[in-house]
Amino acid sequence: MALLELKDLSLTIDEHKILQGISFDVEEGQIIGLIGPNGSGKTTLFNVISGFLKSSGGSITLGGEDISSLSPSLRAKRGIGRVFQNFGIFRDMTLEENILVALEALPKDQQKELGDLKEVVAGTLDMVGLSDSGKKKAGSLSGGQMRLLEIARTLKAGKGLFLLDEPTAGVSPKMTGQVADIIKELKRSGKTVLIIEHDLPFIGSICDEVVVLDVGKVVLQGTPAEVKESKELKEIYFGADPTT
Amino acid sequence: MDFIWHIIAITCMTIPHALAYNLVFGKGKILHFGPIGVSLVASYAVVIIAISTGSFIAATLVGLISVVLLSLFLAWLSLRLDQDAFGVMTIAVHLSILAVILNWNGLTRGALGIPGVPRFSFLSSVQSFAIAAAVVSLLFVIALRLIDRSSFGRQLQALAEHEWHAKSLGINRTKVHVIAFLVAGLGALATALLFPQYLAFLHPNDYQYPFLVFFITIIVAGNPGSVYGVLLSTILLTVLKEALRFLPLSSAVMGPVRLILFGIIMLAVVYWRRDTLFPKQRSI
Questions:
Q1: How many contacts (CB atoms, under 8 Å) link A and B?
Q2: DSSP label of A138
Q3: What is the topology classification, in CATH, of domain B2-242+252-272?
Q4: Could you tell me which chain A residue has the CA closest to the CA of B278?
Q5: 3-class SS of residue A59
Q6: Which tens digits make up the pLDDT trace of B122-139?
C-alpha cells in the first residue's frame, strides 16, 4: 500500500487553477523527485499536502487515512515532516531549543520512545557537526548549517514522510554534499521522501522516481533516466524544438 | 517611610499584570491591546460581588470566571483574525467594556466610581499591602520564569517567530494561545484583587488608555518576552511614575507630563530596538 496517495487534487484561488487533477502515489521507502519550471505548482502542492492550503477538490491519504481535512499541526503529528525552501528554523532560538521544540511537539508516546530528549538534542547536533554551537542563536549559522540543522531536526523528530523543498537552495557546494549524504541516509533508513529540486543531476542520483509538474498538472512520471531522456521535459524547460 | 512602602506596594501590584501581559504581547508577539479591559472586568466583578455578598471567596471566584471567559474570547479572536485586525479588535473590546461600565449606573455607579471597597482583614496598612503584593509578585516571577523556560514557552516563541514553521512541527496554535491568554488574565486578576482594595475606591478613570500606554512602555523598555527585563522596567518605570509626584506641578499638568514622558521613553526604545522588537515574518 502506498504511504501517500494524492487523488485528483486541485486548487483554485480567485478563479486561477493553481493545481489541476494531481494524482500520484508515493510508496513507503521511496524517494520521489518533484521537478518543473518556476510557477508550476511544486511548493503549492507541498503546502496543500502539509495542510497550509486547503485543496479545492480531491483527496490526500496518508497511511490509509484521509488527512484532507486535518490542520497542519495534526498532519505533522501524523508523521509529515517539512523542510522549507526558506530555512524553517527559528533564528531567535538557540540550536538546542530549535531541536527541542520539535521533539516536544511530538505525541507523548513518541517522546517516550525517543528517551531522554536532551540526549536526542545532543545527538542531533553531533550528527551535523554543530555540537559546540548548541547555545548559540540559530540566526548566527550559515545557510548550509541552517539547512543541515533543519533536515536533521526533521529526521530526529521521527517523521515518516519528508517533504523537502529545495534542500540545496542557498547552500554552498561543499555543504550540498553533506545535505545529499543526509538525504541518502534517509533512504537507507527506509524513510519516504518527496523532494523538490532544480538540480537535475542531484535528483537523478538520489530519486527512485521523478514527477514533472507544469502549470499545475502532472505532465510526466517515471524513473530519473526515463524522464531525463523524454522530449516533454526538454519542451517544458526549453520550449518546443523548432527543428522537429 | 510610608511613601517607600507605598512605592513598594504599587510596584508589586503592577508586576503580576505586567509580567503576565508580557507573555502574550512580548513573548508571543500577539498584538493584544486589551489587557486593561480584562483588568477592568476583573476589578468590577471582584468589587461588586465583594460588596454585595461580603464574601471575598465568592468575589474571587466570580472574578476568576469573568477573567477566564474574557480571556477565552480574546484567544478565540486571536485565532480567527489577522494580527492587525486583532489589535484593533482588542482596542474595541476595551472601549466597549469601558462604555458599559460608564453607563450601567445601576450596577457600577458609572463615572462616580465605587467608594468603600472592602479589604481583606489582613490588609489594614500600607505595609501589609506592600508585603502581600510582594509575595504575589514573587510567585508570578517564579511562575512566569518557569513558563518561559518550559516547552510551552518555546512553542509560544516558535509561533511568534514563524507560524507556518511552528505548525509544521506539530505545534497546536489554539492550545498555546488559549494558555497564554489565560495566564495573562490571571495576572490581571491578581492586580485587580489588590489595587482597588489598596485605594479603597474603584474608578473607571484608572482603566483608561494611558494605563495601556504605561504597560506597553514597560514591556518595550524591558525587552519584549524577557521576564527579568520586564520585571526591572516595571520597577524602574513605576518608581519614576510615582517620583514625578515630587515635581512642583498641579495635578492637572501631572497627567499629561507623565504621558509625554512615557511617550518619549517608548519612542526612544522603539527607535533603538527597531530591528529586534518584532521579528520579521518570512514568507514561504
A1: 77
A2: G
A3: ABC transporter involved in vitamin B12 uptake, BtuC (1.10.3470)
A4: A92
A5: strand
A6: 888 899 999 999 999 999
